[in-house]
């Protein structure tokens, strides 16, 4: 077994015991990037010299006993919507094509404090708006399992980099499924934590009430370990929640006896690919055979999640993205006539079509005369969706279902029909609306060899039940290859 | 003018709160400083930055609400007001639309003719200030400085209850007094820590419906406000008289030209797309917290006046003027507690202090001298160490530099000369040198003694004890 | 009921959002927005009477900081990414006529 086949936690163990070094690990990753990156395009920014010297620095500190965190020496990739001090951060947009933040996001700081070494910044859908990583201004990322297919999105670069061993683990962000769906498409583990668990400080906002940072990684153990590192109560983020139960690795227990698992019938209806259905239900069978109590139920309101989400996310995005105006940072158009012309040209040239589409929609639903009918209506439906989940979690510890209706679509097949693309988010989106944690774990492959993920959804602050269930499943499943 | 018109005015008053830091970040609110030196990712709208509310802002806003008889919205929220402008780094301003912190208040004003009137307050909300734009004289560019961006403001929105410039000024003075007493702001119009936008419409006397209103901005003094109100009233009446319609618009007042012009732009849709800011959580001002804020309310003018009358026994005229300014009242109380001479302190405040303020076009809030030094000065006069005219000279220095008068008197050798022997020899010389005046005095011209006193003081460089000089002169003559 | 987005609406939203669309983009935007709104109109099938709009999923309140200065002079960081600067200011097209 080569160095690259190790999980992040295994690698950290080997570095700690002196079997290998952070530098060797980084060199292995770089060599792999050199051979694969041209085809896959996982990274927007990858500075080999910087990565290597950071790894050397880390190794020195490890040897001096100064760097002892659980990820000491482990190369990690960061989605390009998280600010990294002194390192280009573009959100895969032209409008931030030259933006070098002067501070690091809280999650990145914590991951570095735990010893991880940042390799580079991964590709994504522009401003995290998309499900395929094709809306990136820097070209699409390709699915390592089959390069004719997308890796999913918006954290497609992070998911593909983990799957292709172009890193040992990665951070992504999830506003409507942007960690879980690419994790599913790329056959890796991805978790979206309970809203407020990971600080959003330094995460370039898309939908502020929905965004959460989370890990994409090789297995559930890595996931729990990274979660433990990045979860924090941050006074710089007013929506950050103070939690005492963030010892997530304590939930790595191979036991689901008595775990109550609900399968929402409404997640298995029309539109779900039969192969995905079969793989997901067989994962449920595995858990049942290990003693979980599995039953079907009706969640309700599932079809309303998407219109609710697109109203709220577009509204928040239209406001969040107003700051990109050519005044303080980023791209400014060349030829303009006066202030408003500068604004319009900068934004029209700087943003791609999908971002413009959502900004336009968001501006419209907030505009005079439409606020109540669209925005407030969506916030009311959001309350109803949250209530439906509350009722479900009165009966179940975990909800189990698919992550996405299909496996990864072919490149170039999704963007033409936005609504069809948005429908792909149907199983992930309501989790964000209700602020819940969700995890995607590989559970099979379709006839084309493309990975399928099973999604486990927990009640707020119940990541541990998800981790326990996912871990138990993973133990039964064996290595995913 | 054949018809009789009535002016209807409502005000939107912005007040910069006296917090040490900005409303959503730990940057200083201090005035001055090179551009952008009081900035951070939050107040410059850097991607990824997030706001965290300054608790003191809530307490000041609620305190102003309580002092203006508002009901406090115990469950309130912040909303985003979206509009593009370079002084607004996020291109949205964090403000409050749906649930402002205070509502339904009023303040009572008193007019020159003694009439009293209540001006209702519709709401008070918290928001962030914008940065500063400086325009280049030659090139088509402006320069942006975000030092003021994020400085906390409250906006006090009145009902359209005012009918004249006099009422407007009385209302503003009352608001300013209340806010200064609370210590929530220094309320300086010139420096922009208090700004008033005037919403004005006219209607025929007797009409119960409001006319179309305009909003006039950029009013930097009470006199500018008065002039702008009169000009806008006249402008609207002229339009109506000539059969034209008043357009609802925002106008900018140019006080030099005594003219306002419309701030219209096709790029200015005035559709702010307010929605609750998802980056900030709701505020819940508990009964307990509100009780604490209430218990910190200071003694306001009315109570202070009553107390001064019994405690200090100074004339009502003095009390009224001193309590018209929190700053003056503070100086009065602190100085009196040090020297125990309330009338003397009052005289210094209402005399020399007010005179210098007027000469220098300053407001009481600009005063920087300490009560300790004024008290020492009063004691020096009482003890006869210095005479009155020297004291006035020293006070001017205290006013400017807050010097310690005891040290200053010593350093400059200004102590009053009360040594009878020394004075007598000077007076003898003055008498010898001025035979004509002596002659005049002896011939019954009482005024002539004044000249002789003056000559003595001059010879003594102003330091002679004037009572003693008079006495010696009379003896010798 | 199908939504129809006219030119005036698209132009108006363009002013609000500070986006300038080519004629071709405008036609596409009209179609996209109309179909999105049709889709969103599904929400009207739900009776939300008496349901409070939910902005935040958790009842967190009163997150505040003390009024203490924590930041020093960060002007160089603030200006680091300025597309155009002069001395310590950002330069923008003139904002007054």
Report the total helices of chain A: 15
CATH architecture of the domain at 3-256 in chain A: Alpha-Beta Complex
> Could you say which overall geometry of chain C the principal axes of the C-alpha atoms support?
flat
Based on secondary structure, the structural category of chain C is: alpha+beta
Order of helices and strands of chain A: HHEHEHEHEHEEHEHEHHHHEHHEEH
What's the quaternary structure here? Answer: heterotrimer
Number of helices of chain C: 3
The neighbouring-strand order within the major sheet of chain A is: 1-3-2-4-6-5-10-11-9-7-8
Main β-sheet of chain A: number of strands, strand sense, barrel status? Answer: 11 strands, mixed
In which range does the helix fraction of chain A lie?
A: 25-40%
Subunit structure (chain B): Heterotrimer of A, B and C subunits.
Keywords (chain B): ATP-binding, Ligase, Nucleotide-binding, Protein biosynthesis
Pfam families (chain B): GatB_N, GatB_Yqey
Catalytic activity (chain B): L-glutamyl-tRNA(Gln) + L-glutamine + ATP + H2O = L-glutaminyl-tRNA(Gln) + L-glutamate + ADP + phosphate + H(+); L-aspartyl-tRNA(Asn) + L-glutamine + ATP + H2O = L-asparaginyl-tRNA(Asn) + L-glutamate + ADP + phosphate + 2 H(+)
Notes on the structure:
The complex is a heterotrimer of chains A (481), B (477) and C (97). By secondary structure, chain A is of the alpha/beta class. Helix content of chain A is 39%, strand content 13%. Chain A has an eleven-stranded mixed β-sheet, sandwiched between helices. The radius of gyration of chain A is 21 Å and the shape is globular. By secondary structure, chain B is an alpha+beta fold. Chain B folds into three domains: 5-289, no CATH class; 299-412, no CATH class; 420-476, Arc Repressor Mutant, subunit A (Orthogonal Bundle), CATH 1.10.10. Chain B contains 15 helices and 17 strands. Chain B is elongated. Chain B starts with a strand and ends with a helix. In chain C, a hairpin with a 2-residue loop joins strand 2 and strand 3. Chain C has a domain at 7-45: Orthogonal Bundle (Histone, subunit A), CATH 1.10.20. Chain C has three helices and three strands. By secondary structure, chain C is an alpha+beta fold. Chain C has a two-stranded antiparallel sheet. Chains in contact: A-B, A-C, B-C. Chains A and B meet through helix 9 and helix 10 of A and loops of B. Strand 10 of chain B pairs antiparallel with strand 3 (89-93) of chain C.
